Each structure stands twice: as C-alpha cells, then as structure tokens.
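Q: What does the assembly look like in three dimensions?
Context provided by user:
Components: two
Sequences:
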Amino acid sequence: MDEINLIRAVQHYDNRNAFAFLVRRYQAPLRAYLRHMCGGQTEWAEELSQEVFLRAYSAIKTFKAESKFSTWLFVIARNLFWDAKKYKHTELHDADEPNYNLNIDASLDLHKAMRKLPHEEREVLVLSYVEGLTHEEIAVIVKSPAGTVKSRILQAKQKLSSLLLEVPYEKAQP
Amino acid sequence: MKKLNLDELLTQSLVIEDNGFTESVMEQLPETELTMPVLKPPQVYIWTAAFVVVFCIVVIASLNSDYSAWLSAGMVSIFSVSLFIALPYLDELFT
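A: Here is the predicted structure of the complete assembly.
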C-alpha cells in the first residue's frame, strides 16, 4: 500500500496498523532531527519525538496532501521543539554524548561541532540530509525563503568542515 | 592530512534504529470510540443520484401498470435505501 493510501486509512478508518507503518517509516529522520535540535539531549528528544507522532495522529484528518507527509511531520516537530524550548529554558550545548551508529570518535566530533553551529544553520543542515528534502520543502518547514535556506546550508557545511578539521580524531584512523 | 567526508558523516549520523520506539508510540495512542462510518463526497452524490434515477424509473413504469408493479417499485426502493445505508460498511469491508 502506498503512503497516501496509508494516510487515508488512518484518516477515514482510524487504521492503527497503517499509522504504525507511518511511524516506522519516519521515526529515524524525525528522531535524528530532534536529537540534533535538542543538542544531543537524547531523552528530551525522544519525548518530543513521541509527542510529534501523537499530535500527528490526533491531527491527521487536517492533512490535505498539499505537501509531503514528511514535510507536515517536520513542521509539527519544529513547532513542538520551539514551544518546548521556550518552556524549558534549557541550555542546549551541555548534553551527554549521543549514541549513534557510526565510528564513535568521528560521531562525537561531528556532534560537538554541530552544537557549535547556530540553531538555524544546524536545523537546515539536518533537514537537508533527511528524507531528501528539497530547499523549497525545507523553506516551508523553517518559514524562510529557499534562497536563505540554500545559503544557510552552505555556510553550515563550511563551518562544520572547518570545525571538524580542528578537532583531532586521528586516533580513529588506522 | 586528515580526509573529511562530510556528506557521509552527516548521512550516517541520521541512522537511528527503531528499538521499540514505534511500539511505545502505538501504546500511547488515545482510544477511539467506534462510530458509524460517514459517506463522503463524491460517494454521497453518486449513490443519491443512483437512488433517485432507479426510484423515478420504477415509479414511471408503475404508473402504466397494476398493483404488482407498485409492489416491485416498493421492493426496489427498499433495496436501494438498504444499499444506501449499508454502503459505508461495505466500503470499509472492501477497502
């Protein structure tokens, strides 16, 4: 069954198996996005990720398929994150190191470097690497022009490259 | 000189295993009450039109006939109304 039929099954018949399929399909990019946004605070990011899917389930009847389902989910995630951040007043750069599935040293360096990026650059960079979102789709999510998104991604990648090259991780090399 | 493949590093950093996440979300979904399915356009229009057409044909035919025609008209009408009411459930069965 393709994605739009899964969504219709949830909208019209409250089909939970269809919704479970959608959660399984989008959990990885969404959780990755929120982990980066939460500065590696995995527990908080997981709570927000669950809340995103619960809200999506409650509001799925309002999804009109005018955008991709992933775009709609990321809009919910972004709004939820900024609301939660205002409420939480949390410093986002003093978190435990996250556990990701790649070379540990390189991963830690990447996440340390990511946390040094401004939020708006970190956000568009992560979004550009998940779900194959285009600059236009990211622009809808972050409510900025596509040109701004493109330049932010470029700046973020340049900063990240220079930050990563500063961090010594030769010990991970054979 | 250290080699840096930023694209690969970023792509790999976005790989996260499910590890029970989906089950956890599904357990927290609110319970919903069973409600009668509701016909939605264009279904409503198609079936209303079909019902009206069948009803009109039967009534016109029965005007030139005897009581058995009226009986047929009644049965066809009852069948059409039943089908109209049952349609949402049938639709759900076959979807």
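Follow-up: Helices of chain B lie at 6-13, 21-28, 43-63, 67-94.
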